[in-house]
Amino acid sequence: MKPDKQPPKTEEPIKPTCCIDLCEFGAALDGAAAKKDAHVLEEFISACCSEAGFPECARIYLGSSFCVNAFMHLGDDLLDALVVFCKDYAVPVTLVLPIVTEGNQQRFKERLSAILGRADCPVDELTVNDYGMLDYVSSHCALPINLGRLFSKDLRDPRYPETFRTSVKPAILTGELARIRAAYPRVAGIELDPMASAIDIKALPTDIALGLHFPLCYVSTGHLCEVAAQGRELTGKFHAEAPCADECVHADVCYTLRHSQGGDGFNPPSIALFKHGKTVYYPNYEARVVNANAYRLVYLPDRFGWSAQDAVTAIHASGDTANTADRPAPRGERERARARRGNIYSERRDRSHADGESHATTRAQNEKHRDADSHATTQTHSGERQKSRRPEQSRDTDSHATPRRDGKPQQGGRKPNIDTESHATSRRDGREDRR
Amino acid sequence: MSILIPFNDENATDSYIEAGASEFYLGFYDDEWEARFGETVELNRMSGFKREANAYPLDEFLPLVTRTIAKGVHLYVPFNASSYTDEQYDWIVSRYLKLIAEAGATGVILSTPELIAPAKELGLVTVASTMCGIFNADIARFYQRAGIDRMIFPRELSIDEIRTIKEAVPGLAYEVFLMRNGCIFSDSHCLGRHRAGCFSVCRTLRQAEYFTDLHDPQHSPSQIAENDRAYREDLFDRACGLCALWYFEQMGIDAYKVVGRGDDPRALAHDIALIDRNLKIARDCASQAEFLERMERPEGFEDVCANRLSCYYPEALNA
After folding, report:
1. Residue to test with chain B: of A153, A159, A261, A304, most B Cβ within 10 A
2. Phi, psi dihedral angles at A200 (to 5 degrees)
3. For A301-342, how does the pLDDT look when each residue is reduced to its tens digit (9 = 90+)?
4. What is the C-alpha separation between A229 and A235, in angstroms, rounded?
5. Beta-carbon contacts of residue B192 (< 8 Å; ≥ 6 apart)
6. CATH number for the domain harbouring residue A154
7. Could you give the ipTM of this predicted complex?
């Protein structure tokens, strides 16, 4: 848990494989796909790439890590559109499977079977989030398996900066992963959240693919949905995995935590979090991978509720998502902007904190901190380990190298600059342009 | 069909037993653990609350285990932090498990499969914590194959789901939650720190400034306002579940777990006695409808029962 303090070495930065996370977007995109707009998915993914600063989309994540309803609501229209997109761009799909409560098991497995049974199915790997699903897909499917973000249970709590601003070595890498692989040999990858300032993956086996979700880190999730209960009678609210009408497509809950909400002697900085569906996230643009030689960066827009909907709406309105920044900001845009300042901690000094010893972080402090972390990052890229990572590189290099079909320009025209540092920096710059 | 309760004050032991509890779970703290792994690394799920939730150091804890077991009850020790490194596993196995077994503890409550085998080698009963997230029969089978003896169902499962899993995976003992602290998230995947200072994430969020960002409102402002209030003020405000006792007795649930390691012992004893009285009623009833008619509800629960927002198993009221 201690930051690496060895002096930096100057080496060429690692370029992660750029992936777009469509998980939790299914309902919004399916609605658009149902209108048979052949370009809706292409435009949306292109917009996501532009936001993330990705030169291209090398892989798509589809399904849901957190909600069985979100998975079940993946419609055939979206899958049809996805098949076309993936064929045109030679982009493979990772199908992400949530934890399923017993009452939904049968229909979930039927739906999973139907998706994987499509002759044109672009799914080439599965991500599971619990031991039961790992066991099930191991015996029912032949695809490689990733351990999803719910498998790694390192605490990640921005309310405690002293524990958050560290380089974390995920506990699952110290031994659990090896034991799982011994029992389930088709486990070929692992997904992690940006749970701290730095994620040290030195212990990651060389033949295991890492997918780092970015920029959103989930901190808590469950099976009760706040927004799905909005239209229900009081006695019918908040039942686990109750059927829903994709209310999360239309509503997020945004939180601002203040100093005054700490206990005695505790002064957390102001923090912005938000909840989409059943899951609470915070955006962590500081996160970087330490000791990485190859990994995937899995991008999910941090405004994903309205972003998806508005992007789709904009597509249908004008056929172009490039100008979505010009449209009127939806309610909450200003508050959301606070969370997009490049750091989860507010720069503002909270008025309720009167002792003058504010823990609120300044931009300058952030930059200093990032510099310190970048040293830890670059010093670890030894040539020896880079060579040993070839299997993973080859695994994803094919898709990563896939050219865009028609030389279509990236939205916004931003020059791609993807490395272990710039995925945070370029994103931040993009946001500031919009503000 | 025991009542399993947290135990954090030896002086309250007899009152708990008198009220009807026959199983206890009790954590400890160890300065050496903190010195080796850091103050923020949890030995169990409640380590962040320091002595409030784990009152005894290891050297006082072990004789306390022996004294408590001598009263004819069972006692379980939790090792249910959200995750451990291999070094921490080794430390737990080499430093704690043997001592706990020698002290006479019944078993250990575990959050991961890694500790099952070493605990069983010492003759300890192994219990899958709610941190394991036994949400379906596939997960239950995995833990059964790993050697677990007993498991607790997450709060979010319905009575039917509990019955289905129990029937699909026989040969294990099962626990369900009753009373006191409900969770709006899943214990198994709540990765905020539960500790003094900010307490749990859900508590912080309930107190935080918030707004519901509606992109395309589907419901009226009054509906949304009611939903906000219900979620933040009423949901699990007084968590219960007593109405489901008849169903659980019918299906042979082995233990009813009450949480609250840091709670007032008198309030805890009150809840134990209430559960015990209702268990006796449930065992004497021929149907759920009869149980609902005869059961003793918690004091002042008229409104709570009416809105069902504190019910672990709200469907029990539909009989």
Report:
1. A153
2. -90, 115
3. 765 544 544 555 544 443 333 333 333 333 344 444 444 434
4. 10
5. A155, A156, A157, A159, A219, A220, B200, B201, B204
6. 3.20.20
7. 0.95
CATH of domain B2-199+236-318: 3.20.20.70
Strand ranges (E), chain B? 2-6, 23-25, 74-79, 107-110, 125-128, 150-152, 173-177, 209-214, 255-257
Domain range holding A289? 17-219+284-326+380-434
DSSP helix/strand/coil, A296:
strand
Any domain includes A248: no
The answer, for A238 touching chain B at a CB cutoff of 8 Å, is yes
- CA distances to A280, B115, B177, B194 from B206, in Å: 12, 35, 22, 15
Torsion, Cα B234 B235 B240 B244, to 10 degrees, reads 120
Domain boundaries defined on chain B: 2-199+236-318
Is A224 an 8 Å CB contact of chain B?
yes
Q: How many domains does chain A have?
A: 1
CB of A25 less than 8 A from some CB of B: no
Q: Is residue A35, in this structure, part of any structural domain at all?
A: yes
Q: Which residues of B touch A134 (CB under 8 A)?
A: 142
Decide if B160 touches A, using CB distance below 8 A.
yes
A338, part of any domain: no
Query: What is the pTM (predicted TM-score) of this model?
Result: 0.83
Partner A, chain B 32-91, Cβ-Cβ below 8 Å: 38, 40-42, 82-89
Full pLDDT tens readout for chain B, 319 residues:
899 999 888 999 999 999 999 999 999 999 999 999 998 899 999 888 888 888 899 999 999 999 999 999 999 999 999 999 999 999 999 999 999 999 999 999 999 999 999 999 999 999 999 999 999 999 999 999 999 999 999 999 999 999 999 999 999 999 999 998 888 999 999 999 888 777 888 888 888 888 777 766 678 888 888 888 999 888 988 899 999 999 999 999 999 999 887 788 899 999 999 999 999 999 999 999 999 999 999 988 888 888 889 999 999 998 7
Q: Does B300 touch chain A (CB under 8 A)?
A: no
Reference B282, options B257, B252, B305, B302; nearest CA is: B252
